Amino acid sequence: MAHTDSRHLQVSSGNSRSMERFESALELLQGYYGDPLTMIDETLAEDPEFVMGHALRAGMLITAGDGAVAPLLRQTVEAAEALHGIANERERRHIAAARAWLDGEFARANQMYGDIVIDYPRDALALQVAHITDFLLGQSSMLRDRIAQVLPNWNARVPGFSHVLGMHAFGLEETHLYEQAEERGRFALELDPRDPWAIHAVAHVMEMQGRPDQGIGWLQSRTEDWATDNMMAVHNWWHLALFHLELGHADQVLALYDERIRAARSAVALDVIDASAMLWRLQLRGIDVGSRWAELADTCEARGAEGTYAFNDVHAGLAYLGDDRPASFARLMANMRRAAAGTGTNAAMTREVGLPVIEALYAFEACDYDHAIELLMPVRLIAHRFGGSHAQRDILNLTLIEAALRGDRANLACALAAERMELKPMTPSLSTLVQRASTLYRESAEAAGRTPAARAA
């Protein structure tokens, strides 16, 4: 007799207790709440032949986007592969996709999870792993379209529908369909007010549209929904800090950094990325961050996993530059060059984006602004290839503008400021950039004995 889960997908296990805990752990994973990994570990300890339990554990580790978990992923994949004989076709495909990711074939793994979704559109695990790996690979259109492919098969009666809507909202935002994204995110929250991914998607809309006051109100009004016992909490605190930074609230940003973003001194990849990016943004604005880089650099040192995912490597590099650790930075560069010379998806990501970005950041910190500009101008056009969101990758644009300003590249500074003005309404942060660019242009023209024309005014 065939056994099915709550979405009517066949599973090889007939253990009702294992299935109940699988459903609970999957729900936690979808909502980024609690500790689904411990729950599924306990389930597998009691029922080591539970194939979908291994598939769920592999999916959790993959979506962490963290090479530091590779030993755990290997353990999971090998345990599942040993159960090939009792697994059904869908379960075998899950394990094959996880194996591809473990072997560094990220793009192939992503496609394999996506193919599962096409054949089994209610496979919530495959859908979430495909969605997050779309994000890790910078496939913005698939963040939207992969979810659109399955929407006709989901409705409010299917467990997890709100999470599917939340994922779609994020995909719509990342493809600049802001009005649709906000509407979809708010609809998801009508079904489940505590969906931090949907809350996060709406916050992204407000960030991209330059609505910092509304963004602050949005996140603060829903703090009880997203700020407790969930894996997205630090990232949403980061978004709240971004809104304050845009308004020039440096004290609030530093307080959020200390009390929320780095309060637990987490070594989780996403949390480290957020902290590193925030300190760099503060420094670009000339704000003294004190000794905060030291703790973060220590955390990056302890994490290891350098050379396994270019996006993480760049943010570790920021920490080493921020705390002036040349030996650590040199080791990171060596690991990245070794990765770039290899095979697999990360090799291409590192060659095309990671290395040019990290070299540009090094040049910027060394005050070699012309070289930083030379590297950042072309790479920012393809930076999506190493993952992250538009908001996260904006650090490259901000560094480029600052390099133009500090390097006395008046025309470029004005051009980049004007470019930014077209994308976002004027805020205190943008106003400061525009004023600096205009002043630099005027002073440059006067020094050359020219009458300055209007630029970035």
UniProtKB/TrEMBL annotation:
CDD domains xref list: StaR_like (cd05804)
InterPro entries: TPR-like_helical_dom_sf (IPR011990), TTC38 (IPR033891)
The keyword Repeat belongs to this UniProt entry's keyword annotation: yes
UniProt-listed Gene3D superfamilies: Tetratricopeptide repeat domain (1.25.40.10)
Record key words, sorted: Repeat, TPR repeat
Keyword check for Repeat: yes
PANTHER family: TETRATRICOPEPTIDE REPEAT PROTEIN 38
Recorded family membership: Belongs to the TTC38 family.
Descriptive protein name: Tetratricopeptide repeat protein 38
